[in-house]
């Protein structure tokens, strides 16, 4: 078999040295090495090819071996060689795992058989944080759907799932100290669709599944706005809805209801809700919720929202963010907040900011983002007009929104995190995240259609150096197109590239 050039690899590795020929991958091949990694690779190869490979204590010619050696590369890096056998050596378990993701992309049909090109790869990520976000508040996704989202993301070497767990449309996480949140605040979703919530055992299952694929889960409890659902359970904690002209105009244009205190909110307008910032009972609520949330998620981050508080007095907003980021830090986690929280002079030191403004930021947005770095924190880049997977990929696409513009595949690929905010380079950037908000996303199939292949573009931006080999549009377009057979086998309902490029 003649393998394509460039190779069907996304993200593209730091270094690839092609050797002559290919190595057949027959049903008699075996996998040796780290037990957890070999078991997962065995399962994934079976799903990809139908081959059910055996295991071995020691690899021989024609076999696959997966090992860990800290002398190789650096954090999450790996070396992959294909000569008379396939050998993957990770700097750590994560690196070895990501090496197996590269191998899965290299396995190609060779008539009725399978083979892998002979080559040598050395690879490691550009950024430590490479994320996707799933909004399960506006539309609820069950445990199995979240696990499939994790699988899709980790195959592209993402290592973080950000779960947006609470919003005006629903509260999705059971909290023992405040049980009415899910009893009364989780029944519906946007557009009147069914709701749902996660028990603590559900979350443990999601976290365990993610950890097996070397991903952490970052929970978001959105505060002090996006809190209408709290009022369904504990009305004494929230302010009456605050209307604004944009909210009214959108409701009329979309034929959606305006928010009404005490009633589930079925629209998707923003900026109308807030907790009672001056009420001490609110901070007891925040402490209880963040404590229980932090205990469920072993990763280092706890996201507290902080966006789109359009009806909140700036002084009240500042007082809340200063206090809430410290409550989050008291759980032992690093607080994360959307970039508006950077306007607060006293945001807790070390808080990470998540930037969702435009690629060409306003002066205020840029200053807000930079303030996190000045306060000993860092930035996650999620520019809405390039990285938001819920933006329409073409003007006539049946799903998605356009408030940040139309984001086709070329635009999703054609930006660099280090050039978004002046003065903020790689040293101050924790990483990159591709959010999928779910106003129009009602099913997992909808999520696939919006996310793929654009999620692959963001994955390459997060992993690969901007001046690395094959790191250019024509190559990427060719390479991601060659992943289509594997995506079909995995059941990913992706949108054909020619429709959105």
UniProtKB/TrEMBL annotation:
Which domain of life, per UniProt?
Bacteria
* UniProt cross-references to InterPro entries, sorted A to Z: Beta_hexosaminidase_sua/sub, GH, Glyco_hydro_20_cat, Hex-like_dom2, HEX_bac_N
The active site of this protein is located at: 308 (proton donor)
User: Broadest EC class?
Assistant: hydrolase
| Pfam families on file | Glyco_hydro_20 (PF00728), Glyco_hydro_20b (PF02838)
State any GO CC term: membrane
Q: Where is the Glycoside hydrolase family 20 catalytic domain positioned along the sequence?
A: 127-309, 318-465
TM ranges are none
One GO biological process term: carbohydrate metabolic process
Q: Show the SUPFAM superfamilies listed in the entry.
A: (Trans)glycosidases, beta-N-acetylhexosaminidase-like domain
One of the entry's Gene Ontology molecular-function terms is: beta-N-acetylhexosaminidase activity
Q: What UniProt keywords apply to this chain's record, in alphabetical order?
A: Glycosidase, Hydrolase
Q: Which reaction does this enzyme catalyse, per its entry?
A: Hydrolysis of terminal non-reducing N-acetyl-D-hexosamine residues in N-acetyl-beta-D-hexosaminides
The EC number(s) this enzyme carries? 3.2.1.52
The Beta-hexosaminidase bacterial type N-terminal domain sits at 8-124
Q: Which PANTHER family match?
A: BETA-HEXOSAMINIDASE, BETA-N-ACETYLHEXOSAMINIDASE
Q: Which family does it belong to?
A: Belongs to the glycosyl hydrolase 20 family.
Q: What is this protein called?
A: beta-N-acetylhexosaminidase
Species in which this protein is naturally found: Microbacterium pseudoresistens
Organismal lineage? Bacteria, Bacillati, Actinomycetota, Actinomycetes, Micrococcales
